[in-house]
Amino acid sequence: MQPRHQARIVAIQALFEIDLTGHEPSKVLQQRLAEEELPVSGIPFATKLVMGVQAALARIDEVIQEIAPDWPIDQVAPVDRNILRLAIYEIIVAETPVKVVINEAVELAKLFGSDSSHRFINGVLGTLVRNRDKYRIPDQE
């Protein structure tokens, strides 16, 4: 398994816990990193993802609401919500290649989500990509 894919798994697990419990992001991330066998090269990427999503969370959630207005953010399944947050961060802030982000998000949805999660994720991200310049925000690094 590729280090970046493993880093995304760790990031999703951390974001999910932070979202549901309100625990402090850096502590959750450190705990996840201690529990997972993530290659050393994946640690900075996982950290960037979790902390980047947290820094841009309000804007990312606004983007989700604009793109999927029929799904209030608090009614989106927590797993799906956090996969979307991660993917949207990578597309509009980190500028990861779109095909990579969508493929990874769909795979994460198949791994962690419900039977229909991957279709929902794919649809929302497809809409985002068609309008991505409208939503782009600068990286906080």
Order of helices and strands: HHHHHHHH
Relative helix content: over 70%
For this structure, the quaternary state is single chain
- Report the sheet with the most strands, covering strand number, pairing sense and barrel closure: none
How far is the N terminus from the C terminus?
A: 27 Å
The assigned structural class equals mainly alpha
Average predicted local confidence, pLDDT: 92
- Based on CA inertia axes, which overall geometry fits? globular
CATH homologous superfamily - what is it?
Answer: NusB-like
Regarding CATH, which class? Answer: Mainly Alpha
Low-confidence stretches: none
Share of residues in strands = under 5%
Q: Assign the CATH architecture.
A: Orthogonal Bundle
The fold-level CATH name is N-utilizing Substance Protein B Homolog, Chain A
**Count of helical regions:** 8
